[in-house]
User: Fold this.
Amino acid sequence: QSPKMAEATPPTGSDADADAASASPTDPGEDAYSQGFHQWEAGQYDDAISTLKSFVATYPKHRRVSYANNLIGRAQLDKGDARAAATTLLSNYRTDPGGERAPDSLYYLGQALMKLGQPAQACKAFGELDAVYGAKIRPDLKKLESDAKAQANCA
Assistant:
């Protein structure tokens, strides 16, 4: 596993996603999301983006839509398209701030902004994450955010 993948793949979050993605094999929407997740996990970013966009279009009310949109942004970030990732992640957060992966989208938005050389904007994303989700942030995401805030020199 490359350092970049390790950094982009928090073990607890990804394992939880993988377990959840395989939990309901009789749901075709779950299967479609799971396929995209596994493509992303295998580093097949373009395929994952395509599969996940198709999933969102086909199942717009599915409980995994927040996950899928977040993962589309992460795949864009992983393949080096930080600008597209920032747009996707901000949209996922704004469209569904109550979505299960909206906090993750703010965190990865901060990561995309760092890649774009905008640490002050990244700090704003991390600040929004804290202001909106506070104590409800998962511990694994909170740890990642803490490290990212230090890297961005957030006040």
The radius of gyration is 15 Å.
